[in-house]
Design brief:
This protein is an alpha+beta fold and 314 residues long. Helix content is 44%, strand content 14%. It folds into two domains: 2-166, BirA Bifunctional Protein, domain 2 (2-Layer Sandwich); 172-254 and 263-293, no CATH class. It is elongated.
Length: 314
């Protein structure tokens, strides 16, 4: 089992994330992903929970980060029934020291493995604040105990198999590094969003695109593009630069020796210019001239010059 712990600022944001369905659930065919397992010293619907957590938060208005958000993820293929999931949440609360505080346990079914979210208030009803030092060590120790108690696959703690001088070094998220590289590779050859999307799908990603962009890998893990340095605006900006660079390459005049002849196929250039014009201009601003072929534009230009000459001789 893997445990992740985050100390945050907003109960509203955390509770909304845990209890609401994501837009990409429609893509994955999953609905009602969130099931509340248990409450402690709180209750009600989403809005009531937010208000209750914030009321206790006001006991310590100077504390910037009162939210403790824990995620417990079981290994693929492992399953616990609801009774054991509740026991897992309660054991975690006791081990981490917030069993006397407000907390909420939520089960999610939107990935290929069972996982539980715990939202806890670091501020108690007595106004005291739960300390957050050594949290990663504590959550790792709890996971090892829970694996034995509930008969789950046992995972070695980093402190058990890493050299002593490596134990306190930050650990890198290889999934995000791989996604960053895959996006970078896909953008190298793509001149529009459709080409970029095709390459990413071939690499095994599903894409959720709205105001931002997120990528869902083969393990159904969702990562925002902005988390790996590629927001939607940056991707669109890079695609536009790629299209413009391709046009400049077609316009560049190569140096020829006297004995060389130059033959250029203009068909790809015409298609590229036409596609770029459609991408940059809205439909109601496109003139008939923008929709003409190269030969039609030449004839149109000659006829226009003749009309000007006739007007001058009148």
């Amino acid at each position: 089992m893997i445990g992740k712990i985050v100390i945050g600022k907003s109960f509203r944001g955390c509770i909304n994330y845990c209890l609401e369905n994501k837009p990409e659930q429609q893509i994955l065919g999953l609905e009602n992903r969130a099931e509340i397992l248990c409450f402690n010293l709180c209750g009600g619907d989403k809005l009531e929970l937010i208000n209750q957590f914030n009321e206790v938060r006001n006991l310590r208005p100077g504390l910037a980060k009162p939210v403790m958000h824990i995620t417990l993820s079981l290994a693929p293929g492992e399953k616990l029934d609801k009774e054991n999931l509740v026991a897992l949440v309660e054991d975690c609360a006791r081990e981490m020291g917030f069993d006397k505080n407000m907390y909420l346990g939520v089960f999610h079914n939107d990935t290929g493995h069972q996982h539980v979210h715990i939202i806890a208030n670091r501020i108690g009803f007595d106004g005291k604040t739960l300390k957050d030092n050594h949290n990663f060590r504590k959550i790792a120790a709890f996971c090892r105990k829970a694996e034995i108690k509930f008969g789950m696959q046992q995972v070695l703690s980093p402190r058990k198999f890493l050299a002593e001088n490596q134990r306190d070094l930050p650990r890198h998220d290889l999934r995000k590094e791989r996604l960053h590289q895959d996006i970078q590779d896909a953008l190298k050859g793509a001149k529009n969003y459709q080409e970029f999307e095709q390459v990413m799908k071939a690499k095994g990603y599903q894409i959720a695109k709205a105001r931002g962009i997120a990528f869902i890998d083969r393990q159904k893990v969702r990562v925002k593009g902005s988390e790996v340095g590629y927001s939607l605006s940056r991707i669109e900006r890079q695609l536009l630069q790629n299209a413009r660079a391709a046009i400049r390459i077609y316009h560049r005049k190569p140096e020829l020796s006297p004995n060389m002849s130059l033959k250029i196929d203009l068909a790809p250039l015409k298609e590229l210019i036409k596609g770029l014009a459609k991408m940059m201009a809205p439909d109601d601003m496109k003139t008939p001239a923008m929709q003409m072929s190269y030969e039609e534009k030449q004839a149109y230009g000659i006829a226009k010059k003749k009309r000007k000459k006739k007007q001058l001789h009148r």
